[in-house]
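Quick log. Single chain, no ligands specified.
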Amino acid sequence: MALSKIYDGDEPVRVNKWLAQSGVCSRREADSLIERGQILVDGVRVTDAGRKIEKGQTVSIDDEGKDALDSRITILYHKPIGIVSGTPEPGEIPAVRMIRRANVYGPAEVFPDHHSKLAPVGRLDKDSRGLLIMSEDGVLAKAIIGPESDLEKEYHVRVRGPLFEEKLKWLRHGLTLDGRKLKPAIVTQTGEQSLSFILKEGRNRQIRRMCEMVELRVIDLYRDRIGPLHMGDLPEGQWRHMTPDERAALISQS
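-> predicted structure:
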């Protein structure tokens, strides 16, 4: 078998749930593997999505299933202003359409095609630019934007309007959006009209709305970092594959 793990929990648990909790794949991916007969328990192929395993049993994914998991594509894209990260309105260009051979940065052996299921992992507004991750990897997506994720996202922001310490205090601790208190943010003034934001959440247009509430207007917003992953020297409008080490670092810090 290509991949095997021994279950050491005390209570029986569903195979798909345990594989997701173990970081092997998402629950949806596990269901697909079961449907295709690519998961075995103690050498016997599992065909029931509700199958539970008990302590000491070995769960295996066959070579074909392991190859399917290994072929999941994750890319880093330096999104320019004007490209939308999510579902586009008529006339808009979605980021996934910009992932082409012509604008890959560095070597690449695998390219997305019409069979790929790349999806943006987190928001980056049409009017914002910077680091956007797109992936077919459910485990990675959960690590970055799941409800239990604790990953920092860092932004560099230029604003118009008077800046003073009391506004920075409000931005750091005192604001509520849509009736919900925001998590504390690290907000630092880095220039006469520039700020650095470090957030652990990604509410809709959060930084722009936070700034509006303290009478600041955002004129440029650039995301430089997600967890341990920085934009680096990736040119605007280009993309590259995420490395295995980068994936492991993101998952370990979530």
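DSSP finds seven helices and 19 strands in the chain.
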